[in-house]
Amino acid sequence: xxxxxxxxxxxxxxxxxxxxxxxxxxxxxxxxxxxxxxxxxxxxxxxxxxxxxxxxxxxxxxxxxxxxxxxxxxxxxxxxxxxxxxxxxxxxxxxxxxxxxxxxxxxxxxxxxxxxxxxxxxxxxxxxxxxxxxxxxxxxxxxxxxxxxxxxxxxxxxxxxxxxxxxxxxxxxxxxxxxxxxxxxxxxxxxxxxxxxxxxxxxxxxxxxxxxxxxxxxxxxxxxxxxxxxxxxxxxxxxxxxxxxxxxxxxxxxxxxxxxxxxxxxxxxxxxxxxxxxxxxxxxxxxxxxxxxxxxxxxxxxxxxxxxxxxxxxxxx
Length: 317
What we know:
This protein is α/β, with parallel strands linked by helices. 37% of the residues lie in helices and 29% in strands. It has helices spanning 40-47, 69-74, 91-101, 106-119, 135-147, 165-178, 191-197, 215-222, 236-245, 275-287, 302-315; strands at residues 2-11, 14-24, 29-33, 55-60, 63-64, 76-79, 153-157, 183-188, 200-205, 208-213, 226-233, 249-255, 265-271, 291-298. The strands form 3 sheets. Strands 6-7-8-3-9-10 form a 6-stranded mixed sheet, with helices on both faces. A hairpin with a 2-residue loop joins β4 (55-60) and β5. α4 (106-119) crosses α5 (135-147) and α8 (215-222) crosses α11 (302-315). The two termini are 32 Å apart. The relative contact order is 0.13. The model has no long low-confidence stretch (mean pLDDT 89).
């Protein structure tokens, strides 16, 4: 659906994007993750035809953005970080304006506007002035204008910035529902938002793409060992010795984290990356009358993954 090849953008002597390449498949929600000045917004503006690249190319739905800019804009919805709203208009008036700007009229315009209002849960606010709305509802209106033309591609720049926790949850649900009809790229510097919303993450820093994959796959590539957590019942010393003496276990110790059962105890361990090690441990524990309440393979958080990838990039320079 989206192919970005060797994309570079320079502003004078400053390089905002440095030869980046990535692909996005139809129906994906892909997150651009990186700190401020990573190149996320510049990438999105080139994808939408707002900026021309210095070099490289972007192909969307088989069309070159530089050569078929009007087609791309017609089939793309864009929500910039600060949604451009006219505060004296009502929601209904603004969406009328947005629909007409995108070439919709008559019955098609009315139906598209109604769909956008319903998808963004704006039914109770359609005739309120934009200046009276909260930040969260203004973001919904900005999103409604982005989807009013039923775009194949939806580009969202920091869609949850400045929202409270409930508004973030609501926006996340709306975006997930929209992915049933649109391929979505969203940017954020908030790691939790990317991990809860996106199928895949593209990690950017200083104009470069450092990694692209699912958070789980990135975690597997970075971690050299599995991190295991056991919640057990019975003799603590026996359990600890069983786990510690299992071939492939490199570190082991008691833990009080994530305990759910009364009178249970926790053990954390590092092991070589093999599911068979866990099976061996479970059999040995049960044979020694140790109750196994839970065993979890703990994954790196997206924050830990991001930090590790950025640090690795520094060391390879």
